[in-house]
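pasting for ref
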Amino acid sequence: MNTVSLIGRLTADPELRTTNGGTPVCTARLAVNRARKDGQDQGAVFIDVVSFARQAEAVAEHLAKGRQVAVTGRLEYRQWEAADGSPRSRHEVIANQIDFLAKPAGNGAAEPQPAYAEGEEPF
């Protein structure tokens, strides 16, 4: 089973682009806090989250740096060659569902709002 569930804050505004076929793709970087069992903070882990189609458009339109989100999806590993010929790789979460949680501090709280993947029904 390949299922990932995360809650964190966006480290930058989401980036929306389209594939050669015209499908919207949105990439966002999520900071997820790490805490030890004794409650001590150990910093954060930074994870790239990718969404597609209507969900990508909703994320790009409604989310911004600092916004808290809950993400459910699957983990994928990509490899490619950079322009200089060096090998590159990255783990990323392909989102099935992104729930919009609290706004950044100072902007008040928001009700959770799901951004459903294409073909999913909200009920």
